[in-house]
Amino acid sequence: MAELPTQRFHARFDKALGAYLGLAIGDALGATVEFMRPREILLHHGTHRDIVGGGWLKLARGQVTDDTTMSLALGDALLAGGASGITALRDGADDTLLRRIGDAYVAWWRAGPVDCGNTCRRGILRYLHEGSLSGPPNDGDGGNGAAMRNLPVALATLGDRAAFERLSIAQAHVTHHHPLSDAATLGLGRLLRGLIAGDDHARLCQRIDQWVAEEPAFRHTPYRGRATAYVVDTVQTVLHFIRAHEDVEDAVIATVNQGDDADTTGALVGMLAGARCGASRLPWRWVSRLQPATVRAITDQTSGLLALADQLSEVAHG
After folding, report:
1. How far apart are the C-alpha atoms of 143 and 157, rounded to whole Å?
2. Which of 10, 58, 203, 243 is most open to solvent, judged by the fewest CB atoms within 10 Å of its CB?
């Protein structure tokens, strides 16, 4: 029997919301053990599997970090700019949307986030003081901060590959201008878009193999066990654990127990695993531990970003 349009709509929303909630879950779970090593985690927590807060940031239970809050800031800017803003940026006609994104990052930083990476801070301050939307290429920009927050771009541009690629790189360069950061931002976004479109685990693994063939720096077999904020270590960790575990709990738990930059690696694996299983199959014990305001913001923004994607699609095919 052919799938009805309403069924396709609900399936897409379930996967998109699963990705966004999965990002927040991995962020909140991983933040507790960020900068710890696996043996240290085992000594203090056994196998860390519950959202309890704490960690070096002394978070409240269910609180998220910059991975989620920067994503929400970016998503709000996209919604405020609308389809016309994305189209203008895609076509090189206008950078108003990108300036709106820069302003959103500044507002996020001024609000006093619980954490802000050095590269993100440097780029935000450059934009604030100079109005520059992109710094020069910099060997020091090879962190994971651009890739960690790009989920809203992937959702807003479903069905418009050119817009996805142009907007992903543009938002990344506000803070990170490095070829490996660019490759990670695009590559993880493509995996996410494939999962939302219906890729199963086998197809995900095929896409990973194709990507690694094109970008050998991200080769993760054998896995080296490095999960730092260097974007190569981050991507290798994400690809290793998302392909090794088909179950969402197993994938996220294994990732965060690797330690190091566990909030970001956990967020990115949670994003992909959440898209693969959908929001309806995320562990309720994790969803219920997130702060209610975060869940509401994510749910509302997911709906808005998918509506924006539909508007872009209508313009493209109108």
Report:
1. 24
2. 58
